[in-house]
Specification:
two-stranded antiparallel ribbon; 10 strands; single chain
């Protein structure tokens, strides 16, 4: 936990805006981690990136995010998605994911508004109850998405969308179009909708080493989504290699590093950000230019590199240059 506190403090000192923490089974609990982060920062907003409504009932999510928001003085964000990590071990089936997420958002919002709720959805049930404390009613809810239907659902119901793992203009343009369609069908405007591109970033002098370092991060969403890999179609990539598919089909989380060894470099170019400072700067510039409103970075260390060094490189040599170029281009 000392290492985590150092990351929190560094992120705050370097001027990052939001600390997002994954609900990755079976690592440390994200709500406990974000509570620790709240105690060691004063400015950072704090979000789950992301939790899910299958192993955590949406009513418990409302309870947890409301409590975190109290501790953090109004800085909490609930990031929610369909999940998948840890599900095989717990014999949890991810059924009707778009419905489950939409129903979860509805229930959480009503509970945050201090309502007594009786809710019977297709995936979520809640019987005539309420939270026994009064949370902030407008805690932002972000939906994480990559597939067509989930992107549209996010556009229809969320305050913000976490688009992952697209890291190139073709994927992001596809995602933004689905978000706009979902919002339009729901009669919503996207003018105030925050769209965050969640990307895995590795910066190293050796570009090949950086690409290799992010390949497990590319393999993870493939493992979660398998056998539905339709999110790859907008990228114009060749089909996944047979050895990669064979490993994914075993549904063993511990085999993701083995799967990563079969991820082609062409996939990395569209599904992560990896390379030298100049290469990362250019790809980040393209991501921002595609129309997203937030860059959500998961730093990845190359062999022999410290994670905090990646944060410093981003803050000193990537983000200021991209902001400067973006400002000048307006």
């Amino acid at each position: 936990m000392d290492r985590f506190v150092a990351i929190v403090r560094t992120a705050s000192e370097l001027g990052f805006d939001v600390l997002w923490l994954a609900d990755e089974k079976f690592y440390r609990d994200p709500f406990v981690g974000l509570t620790v982060a709240a105690q060691h920062s004063r400015r950072l907003r704090l979000g789950t990136c992301v939790t899910e409504p299958y192993t955590r009932h949406p009513a418990l999510l409302a309870m947890a995010i409301g409590t975190l928001d109290e501790v953090a003085g109004g800085r909490a964000i609930l990031g929610i998605g369909a999940g998948g990590s840890g599900f095989p071990a717990m014999a949890v089936r991810r059924e009707r994911p778009t419905t489950a997420v939409a129903e979860a958002v509805t229930l959480v919002r009503r509970l945050l508004r201090d309502e007594r709720v009786d809710f019977q959805g297709r995936t979520v049930t809640f019987r005539d109850a309420r939270l026994h404390f009064r949370p902030r009613p407008d805690i932002p809810i972000y939906v994480a998405a990559r597939a067509r239907r989930m992107l549209a659902t996010a556009g229809a119901v969320a305050d913000g969308v976490i688009v992952a793992p697209y890291a190139s203009p073709p994927g992001l343009r596809f995602a933004l179009e689905q978000i706009r369609r979902g919002a339009a069908r729901a009669g919503r405007s996207t003018a105030t909708l925050d769209v965050a591109a969640r990307v895995d970033v590795c910066i190293a002098d050796d570009a090949a080493a950086a690409r290799a370092a992010v390949k497990p991060a590319v393999a993870l969403p493939m493992w979660i989504s398998y056998p539905n890999l339709d999110y790859l179609q907008p990228l114009g990539l060749p089909p996944p290699p047979a050895p990669l598919l064979e490993i994914l089909s075993r549904r063993q989380y511990d085999l993701i590093p083995d799967a990563a060894r079969h991820v082609p470099d062409a996939y990395v170019a569209h599904l992560a950000v990896a390379g030298t400072v100049a290469q990362v700067r250019e790809q980040v510039r393209q991501i921002v230019a595609a129309g997203v409103t937030q860059l959500l970075v998961r730093p990845v260390a190359a062999p022999g590199q410290d994670l905090l060094a990646v944060l410093h490189l981003l803050a000193a040599q990537v983000v200021p240059a991209v902001i400067s170029e973006t400002t000048e281009g307006r």
